[in-house]
Amino acid sequence: MTDPAPQTPRRKTGLPRGLIIFFAVHFLAIAGVAIFLMWKLKVFG
Asked: For residue 6, what pLDDT is reported?
């Protein structure tokens, strides 16, 4: 291993980091809306 550290390929985990963050944010947003709606129905229903 004489050559300097080669750039590690981006596809090591299979998904790019941005996509994981994107899905996590949307999942949290949808879950938050669902919990809010259920709370509203429980309070006013």
From this structure: 64
